[in-house]
Specification:
single chain, 543 residues, alpha/beta, two-stranded antiparallel ribbon, 23 helices
């Protein structure tokens, strides 16, 4: 069973243990750190249309717009608008660049997700497991990067982590769901559903967990069963109704349309090519092993080893909890494979399974550190420290391009280059734009920029008064910025450009983005003063 039966969780003496204080201190320090780090991250593909979606919903909620005018193109109405509506509403009162604001709120959701992953691990496997889970999830490069500017998958993953924690507070004794716990689960799952329809999976988990309790307790009294059924139905109905409060399209039929959206995701018509194993593969024709391979090469070794340890050293009393967590990881992956779901941009659509992986890995490391054999404990401690130093070193050196992380199984970013999509979000474009703004400042001249992806370049360049943007087809720009995305041949050719003025690179030299002379470069060439190579984000002009 998932809920903790450890009576020490309610023990007043253990409540304020050393581990508890360490957890609280880390959590308190992480929130401002993550918000400040978000300033270094660029605009992503989805942010402009998602913000527009939030504005439409905000106007609808204020009675200024009809429901039918809140829909957006390209299947955007299949997503709830909670996160985007919050951004649109807060923007009215906070005078700051909207994307800086969005990233700060995104980072806050990332912090909430990390906090509840730690709380979940602490409740199930002990407080030190919670501390470790908090550290593991925040130092995971891709989770940290998604916390900065992924407006769909990260907020959803955070809210599902909250829901799982409250699942763990359910009682294995009748009536299983107290009023307060039921309310907390409704709030968490309604928030998740207001972001992505995949929250319906967690309603299913909730029902299965209650069923497992009924069977384990042999609770077959008809009156008691009816009382439990009423509570489960009440939670389900409340989640579906409240879960469409920020989702006008689904609000029309809250018991039907969320299911329609969930099924629609699996068969999305998006057919763009995905770079996988060096080949361009249509996103709706991916091989079955696409997700397993991506998870294997994009997860830090310290988490992978923790998963292995959870199977080798777990205490017998932990096995039901570990099995439940493993099911939460395997089931969505299996469904995606069986349904041949459309995927792209790595496995970001399955980001919500990663916090569960971290909780399981934390349990594995904790179990190994609790072994009686002192040699096993010492070896485990050394391996854990090495693993954490390895990933933390990458985070610091690669910042703010943690999203292009690949582990040693892929040969790092350099080994993955031209085999897998690197910075699919276009996050690194902000560094290229910032470098160009620095050049404009040093030279004392305005610079016109363009390139691809043009929507991202336009939004990033709007943060700098030294720059102006024109669409690339006009051929009126001084500087051309290019993201290394596309076929293996295209990204390799881009990285090898001999005329590049600047390249955004990973610590191992992998090129993510280039700054090149544009059609009108000759007009500014003689006056252009280039910034020094290798400038860190804080050395560029702050947006």
């Amino acid at each position: 069973m998932l809920p903790s039966t450890d009576s020490s969780s309610n023990n007043s003496e253990s409540r304020f243990s050393t581990a508890w204080w360490v957890f609280v201190a880390l959590a308190a320090a992480l929130l401002p750190l993550m918000v400040l780090a978000s300033f270094d991250f660029g605009v992503t593909w989805d942010e402009k249309p998602r913000h527009h979606y939030g504005e439409l919903i905000w106007e609808f909620m204020r009675g200024l717009r009809a429901r039918t005018t809140t829909y957006v193109e390209d299947g955007g109405h299949y997503y709830g608008g909670l996160f985007d509506t919050l951004c649109a509403a807060i923007e009215r009162y906070v005078p700051v660049n909207r994307y800086v604001l969005r990233h700060a709120l995104n980072a806050t959701f990332g912090w909430i997700g990390a906090l509840y992953v730690g709380r979940l691990a602490a409740r199930l496997f002990g407080r030190w497991a919670g501390v470790l889970a908090l550290i593991l999830v925040v130092t995971s490069p891709r989770y940290f990067a998604d916390s900065m500017n992924n407006p769909k998958d990260l907020p959803f993953a955070a809210m599902t982590a909250v829901a799982l924690y409250y699942f763990a507070t359910l009682s294995p004794k009748w009536p299983y769901v107290s009023r307060s716990t039921g309310i907390k689960i409704v709030v968490a799952l309604a928030a998740a559903l207001n972001i992505r329809a995949a929250a319906l999976l967690y309603l299913g988990y909730f029902g299965l967990l209650i069923l497992a309790f009924v069977v384990a307790e042999r609770q077959f009294d008809p009156r008691r069963l009816l009382a439990v059924l009423v509570r489960v139905v009440a939670v389900t109905a409340a989640v579906l109704v409240l879960g469409t409060a920020f989702w006008p399209w689904a609000m029309v039929s809250p018991f039907i349309r969320p299911i329609e959206a969930l099924l629609g995701f699996a068969n999305a018509p998006f057919g763009a090519d995905v770079l996988f194993n060096g080949r361009a593969v249509p996103s709706n024709e991916l091989p079955w092993y696409y997700v397993p391979v991506w998870l294997l090469i994009s997860t830090p070794p310290v988490v992978l080893v923790g998963l292995i340890l959870s199977g080798l050293f777990a205490e017998r009393s932990w096995l039901p909890k570990l099995s439940a967590l493993a099911t939460l990881i395997v089931l969505p992956i299996a469904l995606v494979i069986i349904q041949h779901s459309t995927l792209y941009d790595g496995v970001r659509h399955l980001l919500f399974v990663y916090p569960v992986m971290v909780a399981l890995a934390a349990a594995g490391w904790t179990a190994a550190l609790m072994r009686r054999d002192p040699l096993v404990r010492r070896i485990t401690a050394v391996l854990l420290v090495i693993g954490l130093i390895n990933v933390l070193t990458f985070d610091v050196r690669a910042h703010p391009n943690e999203s292009a992380y690949f582990n040693e199984l892929a040969g790092g970013p350099k080994g993955a280059f031209s085999k897998y999509d690197m910075d699919y979000w276009g996050n690194c474009v902000l560094q290229a734009v910032g470098w160009t703004a620095k050049a404009a400042q040093l030279s004392g001249i305005p610079i016109v920029v363009s390139g691809e992806p043009s929507p991202v370049i336009q939004l990033d360049s709007e943060r700098y008064h030294q720059l102006s943007f024109v669409p690339p087809f006009r051929n009126q720009h001084h500087i051309d910025i290019r993201l290394a995305r596309g076929s293996a041949g295209a990204v390799s050719s881009l990285a090898a450009r001999p005329d590049a003025l600047f390249k955004v690179e990973m610590p191992d030299g992998t090129v993510l983005c280039t700054v090149e002379p544009g059609p009108r470069f000759a007009e500014i060439e003689s006056r252009l003063k280039l910034p020094a190579a290798g400038l860190r984000p804080h050395q560029l002009i702050r947006p």
